[in-house]
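Attaching the record inline, Q. Sequence:
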Amino acid sequence: MRPPVGMPKLSRRSRILLIIGVVVLAALIISSSLVGAYVDWLWFGEVGYRGVFTTQLLTRIGLGAAAAVFLGGVLLLNLWIAYRSRPVFVPISGPDDPLARYRTVISARPVLLAVGISLAVGVLGGLAAQADWQTLQLFLNSVPFGQTDPEFGHDASFYTFELPFYRWLLSWAFVAVTVAFLGSLVTHYIFGGVRLAGRAGQLSAPTRVQLAILAGLFVLLKAVDYFFDRYDLLLSRRNSLFTGATYTDLNAVMPAKLILLCIAVFCAFAFFAAVFLRDLRIPALATVLLVLSSVLVGAVGPALLEQFSVRPNANQREAESIRRNIAATRQAFDIGEDKVEVHDYPGVTNLRPQQVADDTGTIPNIRLLDPSVLSDTFTQLTQQYNFYGFPDKLDVDRYRDENGQLQDYLVALREINTAGLAENQQSWINRHMVYTHGNGFVSAPADRVDSTLEDGRTQGGYPVFSVSDVANDGQGKIPVDQPRSYFGELADTYAIVGGNPGEAPREYDTDRSAYTYDGQGGVPIGNWFNRLVFAAHHAERNILFNQAIGDNSKIIYERNPRDRVQKVAPWLKVDGDPYPAVVDGRIKWIIDGYTTLNNYPYSEITEFGEATNDTLRGVQRQPNQQINYIRNSVKATVDAYDGSVDLYETDDTKPDPVLKAWEGVFPGVVKPSSEISPQLREHFRYPEDLFKVQRSLLTKYHVDNPADFYSTQTFWEVPPDPTSGGQGGAAEDGNQQPPYYVVAQVEGQENPTFQLTSALTALRRQNMAAWVSASSDPKDYGKLRVLRLPTNTQTAGPNQVQNQMESTPEVTENRTLFNNPNVNAIFGNLLTLPVKGGLLYVEPIYIQRNEQDSYPQLARVLVSFGGNVGFAETLPKALEQVFGAGAGDATGEGGDQQPPTQQPPGQQQPGQQTTPELRSAVNDIQGALERVRTSQQSGNLGDLGGALQQLERAVGRFEQLQGSGG
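Structure, as predicted:
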């Protein structure tokens, strides 16, 4: 007989090369990980949160090691048992037995192979398990909610902090038993414990015992799984209308889980019985019983109850479940009665001019500047140089004017934007050592445009800018002590600052001066070890060999304020729109942080990404993760100059249990709200992403009665954005109208406040159903006010109003002013504002030339109220067209600004009265002139003759109206 053939052998040289290759590859992987960890270690030390890094690292290592030891240990134990219990004599199937070579190799080094395989499996399992470090930490630091579920009576913390960890343990127990079963089966097969000869095959006694015990353990774990499944029913989605245990879940599925639990325990003992009985039919029958019962009891029974009992009477059967869902959702998303005020709003459609003029809260503060449109205008008029820039979406904040009145502003930092460097400026030194920081805080009152006279012409339609930069020592309209910004939304690369002692500054500051950074931010790279580490990390040799890097040099990285906060607080979801504010003379980025859960019992599951996605550009989109609990528990700030990060608890009086749990994990990271200065608190805005989630839920959860909830007839919805082409229908993903920050005074407020607002329409209808706002005023921060419109009358919604505005004769006639080959019209944000019991719509229209580097300019203002539309160069004039003479007096000097340069021919002189008829005649003249020019360019004499006749008629009508005093 020919001896069994061993595994193919490598030559000595091949083995050496293979070993060297493996060592080099491992060294590269390990060194890369170590370099990245060391860079993070230095960064956390810079911001003063090294405890966050070490806690995460130690938790990951500990959890991964524990999982690796458990998984590898279970596998090793079973491999050892399988090997030790192998048959003494193994029948050989023939001279070419394929298993013989494997038996020979394993028998030569059984310990090495068993330990190696177990170690590899354990390492892979540990790497997977360490990612769940947050589950472990929340379990260890669980905090009670003080809210019990209505079915089992457990505190909500059991479902949010404890049950996920139990589930995690159970899942790894399943993995360990499964891996052990497969490893034992393969080992027994190789050594003859499992033989496939014959019709039924054969199992040796030790093989039968070991595999039966593992199978019994697996089924026993399944029994535990059935036990936990009962709790998961409180997050059931059987009914698409709501989240939570339905009537079928409570009365069919839950009893079925208990029955299946008992059957699984019985089946597990049937497998254990195979240890003593040679008959394998008992565990086989037990398996069939478990499968059949899971189908009949777990699926067919609930389906029959659902089909023949629940669906015909669903409004009654599901009433209790809906009631539980409403209560839990309002609690989890903070939209309960203590947070939301609902006012019945009359929705009047007629107001006298004096009533409008008497409004001192909303109309004087109407915002005319759209932050999502004017980024190019800020860039072209205040950018200075190509290496500065502004984000695509500007921010809205509020400050006090000289009289102490609240005023909303468009604000932005003039940030460093290395992506804007010209080709001849793209050297490594320029990108990382010269153009290192932004310069200036730029602001403009949001309710006005300029009207300066220049060369006898009126130049209007542009923001009234105020720039606090180095050139004026930061002394603009909003003064700052340090106008330089090293941290911002556009900074996407590292900067190296400082240098050798006594050297001249090299960072660009102004045309006449350079600057050397003297802030606390940045990691020192004066020593050669750190330089070597960062050179390897960035794969950049210049960091090693540049002679300007000296003992005092620092490297600044992770410069985006949102990323800095996310890194310091990895348990938070961060709002997509950070904004800059001047606080005590310092420029601070303010970022909102959310604690979220996806397992709060009975609370509605919401897609975070879908709920927060709208038509705004330049905003960081949220991941589309499921959540059913959210709190804005943290306000974070990042200093624009030194990058320091501070996190504050929003409200100590109503502590968030999720935040408290994380504070147990990372003590001292979040400061108490008592440390928030009054100046900082004045600039807190109600966060957009939270508001978007809450308004989405309020469309359903404003309903109290379960029967009304089930019928959905009183539901609302977020309308599509009428200014982005989303006309009519429901708002699809990404086409929702954004909420808008305004200064206004609504029901229940004594003074105008800065608030976030949104319109809501009836379900699958375009008429208004409600208007909701969230206050940012420190006195009642976070209060949600809902103005509910009557259902017996229809109030036009945003899309209906937009259609009315665009179809108004004056607007259609003026399209020749806007939509000509040289100019585009841009519709700004459509604001919906409550005024004297009715809803006032205001929309700015901008014009922008069709040429490179052009920028928007405010051209007209559209106003609508009760079906009447005003269209004028200024807000006061548009208001008077709608309400009558004197209605525009309430706007004050902020809104009564001059129109832009491009005026229609025949524009009236100051003091001359304007009427709609005269305005229409002027527009007819302009339209005729445009037709004349087009005909001349085309050379069509027939069209030219018709255009001249049209012009003659328009001029005659204009002169007639002037003669009649129009």
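The longest helix spans residues 12-47. Confidence is low (pLDDT under 50) at residues 1-7, 452-458, 893-914.

More tomorrow.
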